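Run log // design_07
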């Protein structure tokens, strides 16, 4: 896999055989070439990678959210951003509350938040 384009899903096999750093740098390259203005392209890319990994691994709540958001009119790239905003918030929660002492509960609450995500929430900026 030589190129990443958020608007088409990478083949799960080729995506997963890359290491994490290669995935991040492919995503960074896409955003740099597209000249998208981002406060921190590496952090942004890392969240793309988290979501792409979950889709490539076929995590159902995330796969369902992707379909739902696309049906609601978001581009694949925006849907990635919407899901990664939930992932970011979730991560922040974990860091804040040390809920990671109970990884199962923490994963369940992430999945629940992803299941609630809709394009309307995202447009309103309150994912
Ligand atoms: Zn992006």
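design_07 sequence
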């Amino acid at each position: 896999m030589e190129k990443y384009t958020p608007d088409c899903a990478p083949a799960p096999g080729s995506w997963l055989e890359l290491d994490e750093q290669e995935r991040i740098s492919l995503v960074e390259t896409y955003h740099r070439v597209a000249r998208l203005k981002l406060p921190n392209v590496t952090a942004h890319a890392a969240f793309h990678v988290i979501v792409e990994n979950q889709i490539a691994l076929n995590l159902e709540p995330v796969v369902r959210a992707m379909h739902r958001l696309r049906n609601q009119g978001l581009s694949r790239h925006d849907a990635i951003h919407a899901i990664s905003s939930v992932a970011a918030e979730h991560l922040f929660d974990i860091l804040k509350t040390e809920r990671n002492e109970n990884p199962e509960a923490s994963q369940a609450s992430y999945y629940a938040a992803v299941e609630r995500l809709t394009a309307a929430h995202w447009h309103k900026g309150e994912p």
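The chain has one domain: 12-124.
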